[in-house]
Write a structure and sequence with these properties.
This protein is an alpha+beta fold. Helix content is 51%, strand content 15%. α11 packs across α12 (341-355). Strands 1, 2, 3, 4, 5, 6, 7 and 8 form an eight-stranded mixed sheet that branches. Strands 14-15-17-19-20 form a five-stranded mixed sheet, covered by helices on one side. A four-stranded antiparallel sheet has the order 13-12-11-21, with no helix packed on it.
Length: 657
């Protein structure tokens, strides 16, 4: 009788796999209502049949279990999509919002996340009557720089804004990372741009949000860290390493850490939680010597780590690490036997996806679980080759863990980011001891307030961070420090993951049968990649919201227009939103694949044809109704194909070479 793999028999591993499959299937079928309900009907039929036939065939139990968890995950996906729905409003309106994130300055504007409290139909900031009720939905707001130049926006403030909200949605037509899809997965239902003098602060009674409370605590800690008198870069690094506040990190510093292959230390993850848990475990050593001290220590760790996760923003990677630490601690309180970490990974993943199915699309969730699973399954096979020397053994462990984590994450990194840091081993070897010291000193400074000791500890901490940044900057200047434009498709990422699974299976139990599958998966993966490389990439014009860009496979190419004419390899697309082309003519017409006409355009399309050879017209429905009707009639009379585009939408039109 053939044995089932041990990992597949691990509690909740099967259920987690079924839930992941159900989430992806239900998410892909959600937009097609009939297909989605047909899918639910199939699950229900499977559950009903298995309940009657499970005594006849053992396989029906597995089918029934699979259908149950597929149905649960589909219902959760439906709930998640329903919560993210936002009504489409074609015109600007007045809204009351409450800021729930610290405003972040960019080069041209300021961005902040807010909760929508109320919508007022009155198109003015003055004389608005209070309307009970609210949406409680998240919005991504972009303020003009001059709007906030003379005022300070803080977490928890209530603003009354006059703008038009554009709903976010998942882009299923183009592969690769898309900002709108990212916001949608994060629970942000709409985006809005707020021009100058289109907002004001108001006093409105609101219910205190737990997330808002955590962010206020984090802002207080960030202010305290800023009062230590360190340089701006050192303060930003300490805030990122301890409380997860990356708002003050400069783009150059983020890029340097990414090039050195240690950008994961700037995002709170299992490394930071493990360091904090180890510090607390050492701190409670005298208490653990008591008979009842083990239980007090366990409860204290549960409370402190839970509070840390709450303050740092409850990111997916932190939740995973904290939950695993808490489960290990609770298990040790009631049992003296050792537990394998693989069941803990399955338990945490199952309940996280049960609570929020959209976690599966979060990059932090994917990287965190894949990295920890790779470390658990692969690293023990190399422990036998560790040197006997204490120092060399630790260096060996750091190098092995870094290599295994990087190889495990490679398909996801290439799919999402398309980059690979060449010197990641050197960066991690340098980073490992210094991050431990930096976090330890930061916690010590937060706890101690004796002036002389506090001052000297701050200076030591600043010197360490400056030295770390200098070393990282030096690595980034080396030749070939980072390989770029290495994007792979989703199927290529799946095949690379299959190769890694075969390698893990072979390491756990070397056998010719598993070696055969490993070789077959490698050949299939290499062949698929070579096939995609020789294919001509499909290009699209991305048109919408007053912008034009090029989508090439997994990357977006932003074009610099000249007089609102976008060019790419002798192919052209023009944006018409004013009167600059009126009463002009030319002996030679410029070929235009698409003419994108928005509000502000004056004139007729036949006047444009004296300058351009237009192949297709894109009409924005933000145009006045009479003008839109006139332009549609003109396109029909001229024999030009046209496309109607709503203000909040984007069109992906093929680039015809």
């Amino acid at each position: 009788m053939k044995k089932t793999p041990v990992l597949w028999n691990t509690p909740l591993i099967q259920a987690t796999c079924y839930m992941i499959a159900g989430i992806f299937i239900a998410d892909a079928c959600y937009e097609c209502t009939y297909l989605y309900y047909a899918l639910i009907g199939v699950y229900l039929c499977g559950i009903i049949c298995s309940s009657f036939l499970y005594k006849c065939h053992t396989e029906w139990r597995a089918i029934g279990l699979a259908c149950i968890f597929l149905l649960i995950s589909s219902a959760n996906v439906y709930r998640g999509h329903t919560e993210r729905q936002f009504p489409i409003i074609d015109s600007a309106g007045c809204y009351d919002v409450q800021l729930i994130s610290p405003p972040v300055y960019t080069e041209k504007n300021l961005k902040a996340t807010a909760i929508l409290l109320q919508h007022h139909p009155t198109p003015s900031l003055q004389g608005i009557h209070h309307i009970n009720g609210g949406y409680r939905k998240k919005l991504q707001l972009t303020f003009a720089i001059d709007t906030c130049h003379h005022s300070t926006l803080k977490i928890g403030q209530v603003l009354r804004i006059y703008t038009q909200i554009h709903p976010t949605a998942v882009n299923r037509r183009i592969e690769g990372w898309d900002y709108e899809s990212y916001l949608y997965r994060k629970g942000i239902v709409g985006t809005a741009f707020i021009p100058a003098r289109h907002y004001k602060k108001i006093s409105l009674k609101t219910v205190e949000n737990p997330t808002l409370t955590a962010l206020k605590i984090r802002e207080t800690l960030s202010t305290r860290i800023a009062s230590w008198g360190m340089t701006k870069e050192a303060t930003a690094v300490v805030s990122a390493l301890t409380i997860g506040d990356k708002s003050e990190l400069s783009p150059e510093l983020k890029e340097a850490y990414s090039t050195a292959g240690i950008s994961h230390i700037l995002a709170l993850s299992g490394l930071h939680v493990g360091i904090l848990a180890g510090m607390l475990w050492v701190l409670f050593y005298p208490l653990r010597q008591r008979v009842w001290g083990r239980y007090v220590t366990g409860i204290a760790l549960v409370l402190l780590l839970g509070g840390y996760a709450f303050i740092t923003g409850m990111s997916a990677s932190v939740i995973r690490a904290v939950c695993m630490c808490l489960l290990l601690q609770l298990y040790s309180l009631f049992s003296k036997r050792k537990i394998s970490p693989i069941p803990l990974v399955g338990v945490v993943a199952f309940f996280m996806l049960l609570w929020e199915p959209m976690y599966i699309f979060d990059i932090g969730f994917q990287l965190s679980f894949v990295a920890v699973t790779g470390l658990i399954l692969i690293v023990p096979h190399f422990s036998a080759f560790a040197p006997r020397s204490y120092i060399m053994s630790h260096i060996y462990q750091v190098l092995v863990a870094s290599t295994v984590a990087q190889c495990s994450l490679l398909p996801f990194i290439l799919y999402h980011f398309g980059t690979f840091p060449t010197y990641f081993l050197l960066g991690n070897l340098l980073m490992a001891p210094m991050v431990l010291v930096i976090i330890f000193l930061s916690v010590l400074i937060l706890l101690l307030s004796i002036p002389p000791i506090h001052y000297y500890l701050c200076r030591i901490l600043e010197k360490l961070i400056v030295y770390l940044n200098e070393c990282i900057t030096t690595i980034t200047h080396w030749q070939g420090a980072k390989w770029e434009a290495l994007y792979i498709s989703g199927w290529e990422a799946i095949l690379c993951g299959l190769v890694l699974i075969c390698i893990i299976a072979y390491l756990r139990k070397p056998h010719f049968y598993r070696c055969k599958w490993l070789l077959c998966s490698c050949i299939l993966c290499i062949g698929t990649m070579l096939y995609h490389k020789v294919q001509t990439p499909t290009l699209y014009w991305e048109i919408g919201r007053g912008k034009v860009a090029i989508i090439e496979k997994h990357r977006r190419i932003f074009l610099s227009p000249q007089a609102d004419i976008y060019s790419y390899h002798r192919l052209h697309c023009a944006l018409f939103r004013n009167t600059q082309w009126q009463y002009k003519s030319s002996t030679k017409k410029l070929p235009l694949q698409y003419a994108y006409i928005r509000r502000g355009f004056r004139g007729k399309i036949q006047y444009l044809q004296t300058l351009f050879a237009i192949q297709e017209v894109v009409l924005d429905t933000s145009l006045p109704p009479t003008q839109l009707h006139s332009l549609k009639k003109e396109c029909e009379s001229l024999g030009l194909p046209f496309l109607l585009l709503r203000p909040e939408e984007k069109a992906y039109l093929p680039l015809k070479r």
